[in-house]
Write a structure and sequence with these properties.
One of its GO terms (molecular function) is RNA binding. It comes from Candidatus Hakubella thermalkaliphila. Belongs to the pseudouridine synthase TruB family. Type 1 subfamily. The chain has 5 helices and 12 strands. The protein is α+β, with helices and mostly antiparallel strands. The chain has 2 domains: 46 residues, no CATH class; 133 residues, Pseudouridine synthase, CATH 3.30.2350. It has a 6-stranded mixed β-sheet. A two-stranded antiparallel sheet has the order 1-3. It has a two-stranded antiparallel ribbon with strand order 5-6. A hairpin with an 8-residue loop joins strand 5 and strand 6. The longest helix is centred in the first third of the chain and has 12 residues.
Length: 189
């Protein structure tokens, strides 16, 4: 999926190209994100629930110093903090601290449903609701590059992991604030 399209836009495009009605994606990929978005067509839509539960791999860029309301580059700035001096060793230690099982609270700007409504719909109306933490697991996380106030890293994680929220949490552990400025899903399953 290229950046700028919603997962549903991709489904509609595939419907038009194939002329088939039974088309579905296997897990939302944010509009600003790019990469692997498995699409099931026709009778293959029956396997979508299995693909949905598979682990995912990503390459992400964390922009330090400024937090946004959506936790990604599409949002409005909400907080600015200075960025401490970064060293590869220090950043790697922080990243490794996220390995293993943990929990995350889904961001308000997410496709999670609460009482039948998507959280992003509530967030757009200015509403904030209590969200239940979800169990996640980070299997692997690797620093690729530090460039000024940007950190590029790769990770393998369980279904339901919000990389935007992980970026926010990494920035906080580094003593600053931040948001996810780029996301590429490199693998599903």
């Amino acid at each position: 999926k290229p950046p700028g399209m919603t997962s549903h836009d991709v489904v509609n495009l595939v419907r038009r190209l194939t002329g088939m009605r039974r088309v579905g994606h296997t897990g939302t990929l944010d509009p600003g994100a790019a990469g692997v978005l498995p699409i099931c067509i026709g009778q293959a839509t029956r396997v979508s629930e299995y693909v949905l539960g598979m682990d995912k791999s990503y390459r992400a860029e964390l922009s330090l110093g400024q937090a946004t309301d959506t936790e990604d580059a599409a949002g409005q700035p909400v907080l600015t903090k200075p960025v401490p001096a970064l060293t590869p060793h220090g950043v790697e230690l922080v990243l490794k601290g996220f390995l293993g099982k943990g929990s995350q609270i889904p961001p308000m700007y997410s496709a999670v449903r609460v009482d039948g409504e998507r959280l992003y719909e509530l967030a757009r109306r200015g509403e904030v609701v209590e969200r239940k933490p979800r169990e996640i697991q980070i299997y692997n996380i690797k620093l690729l590059e530090i460039r000024e106030n940007f950190i590029l890293f790769e990770l393998d994680c369980s279904r339901g992991t919000y990389v935007r929220t992980l970026c926010k949490n990494i920035a906080e552990k580094l003593g600053s604030t931040g948001h996810m400025s780029f996301l590429l899903r490199t693998a599903v399953g």
